[in-house]
Amino acid sequence: MNHALAIALAFAASLGASAAGAHDYKLATLAIDHPFARATPPGAQIGGAYMTIDNKGTGDDTLVRASSPAAGKVEIHSMTMDGNVMRMHEIAGLALPAGKRVTLKPGGFHLMMVDLKAPLAEGSRVPMTLTFAHAGTINVELAVQSMTADMHGKH
Predict the structure, then answer these.
(1) Which is nearest to 47 in space by CA: 87, 85, 74?
(2) Residue 3 lies in a domain
């Protein structure tokens, strides 16, 4: 009986591990970790998308475009300090240097979903397509977390 229980527990643990890993993506030498968005209030027209992209290759790449059926368009944004004011602006592409990890996070680089078709509801998933200059294109799902979630899903 203990042997059967051990096998059942090992099987359950392997299902949990694959479900957790299902939110990580790989494309060529790029590893995309935990893409997520923050929930938005009713009537919001914009929402942010975040993730970590690890370029494990020996050549640089660039995130050149993103799109989602949940928004009219998706822009790549940078946040910079101008004196005492934080300024956000669209950039043409996000550099992904070889051997480096780039984090898109609140208050830093991020993807801005513009003209949302509906509010981003906590607990839902939102499809997004990412296009890279060299690695190509990949479809990911953004896990919609709370309005105050950070990179680890904490408030």
Answers:
(1) 74
(2) no
Is the torsion defined by CA of 128, 131, 132, 136 positive or negative? positive
Q: For the CA atoms of 61, 127, 50, 151, what is the dihedral angle to 10 degrees? A: -130
Q: What is the pLDDT along the chain (155 residues), one digit of tens a residue?
A: 444 434 333 333 333 333 334 589 999 999 999 999 999 999 999 999 999 999 999 999 999 999 999 999 999 999 988 889 989 999 999 999 999 999 999 999 999 999 999 999 999 999 999 999 999 999 999 999 999 887 655 44
Q: Is residue 2 part of a domain?
A: no
Task: Write down how long the chain is.
Answer: 155
Radius of gyration of the chain (CA): 18
Q: Is residue 86 part of a domain?
A: yes
Looking at the structure of the chain, the number of domains it has is 1
User: Which range marks the domain in which residue 84 is found?
Assistant: 25-145
Burial of 12 by CB count in 10 Å (0-12 exposed, 13-18 middle, 19+ buried)? exposed
CATH number at residue 100: 2.60.40.1890
Sign of CA dihedral 120, 148, 95, 89: positive
